[in-house]
Amino acid sequence: MNPRLEQLHPYPFQKLRELLAGVTPNPALAPINLSIGEPKHATPQFIKDALVAGLDGLAHYPITQGSEALRAAIATWAERRYGVKLDPATEILPVNGSREALFAFAQATVDSTRHGRRTVVSPNPFYQIYEGAALLAGARPFFLNTLPENGFCMDWSRVPEDLWESIGLVYVCSPGNPTGKVMSLEAWRTLFELSDRHGFVIAADECYSEIHFREDDPPLGALTAAQRLGRGFRNLVVFNSLSKRSNVPGLRSGMVAGDASVMKQFLLYRTYHGSAMSPAVQAASVAAWNDEAHVVENRRQYAEKFAAIMPVLQDVLAFDAPDAAFYLWAKVPGGDDAAFVRGLYEKQHVTVLPGSYLARDAAGTNPGKGFVRIALVDSLGACVEAAGRIAAFVDEGA
Known about the structure:
Layout: H1 12-20, E1 32-33, H2 45-53, H3 68-82, E2 92-95, H4 98-109, E3 119-124, H5 129-136, E4 140-145, E5 167-173, H6 185-198, E6 201-205, H7 222-228, E7 236-241, H8 242-246, E8 254-258, H9 260-273, H10 279-289, H11 293-313, E9 318-319, E10 327-331, H12 337-348, E11 350-351, E12 353-354, E13 371-375, H13 380-395
Parallel strand pairs: 1-11, 3-4, 3-5, 5-6, 6-7
Antiparallel strand pairs: 2-8, 7-8, 9-10, 10-13, 12-13
């Protein structure tokens, strides 16, 4: 077996299962699980209908590049959402969800040779795929802590100067998981300048970009930032997904877009990787990318939940309202996030995720320690009920 597999850490939800093993939750209370970022809103019927209507496509092998119709739909959405014109033939690829593409991208971009660019930078806390992708590509992860004192943003001054020339890939996540923070135009300017100076590729994970709270002011995306700054898409690749936007996590459908020269090589990799999207899924994806009404309604439901639960929790947990996404990143009393999660599950039958499970020790600290991630993915009623139970748990002396 590949010895690099031994470097992989247990996945956060495996650790959570181990933490809760042997705990008997309060039998008088129905379970509420807010630990995993799996959308629970209903999948729009028109997407299901398009999937069924596309079943005849199962009689054909799909091509890795995807259909012209799907790439055109993604290009149209990107122009509508980000105000950029993408070439569907050279700057867009459909992918089987952003997760598999974020992983595969490191395998295609990292130069793990002795004198290659063997360092991959990611935020900390972070989506665990970034680390696994780096390790299995033969790279060394470098974790850049996102801390309250710098607004949970990546502080590039903390990267040692002598490390830059070894960096081949930088993962960024905006809106962030788990903090919900959005990168500013000035933050993008700094990152683009560093990429231009040192030559690394930027992988911008934007899978939460469509969960936000102001219809007239959506989160700034990397493609828009690049256009506003007049630099083009050089060494920039953006990842997005229909899972959160359209409530279809089981569809496994997303998109990658950006620098045509990087995309050309990524397509070559994917051709050998065998990652072509099912024709039926492509048909459903075209329908989803082409419609915005269901996305507006989806946002309304999340905004309603945040408006209802934040007043309940503001006196018992310390948190900032997120800029976007559906997570509440909250500091818990006492500072022991794992103990808090275990106690909450036992006393109130509510499951949230310890923040330390989403981070690594770096620069002398685990930046997730003392925090929990609360995913507001269940119904409004369930989220309000969970907030009330969390408040009661803290009031009882958690």
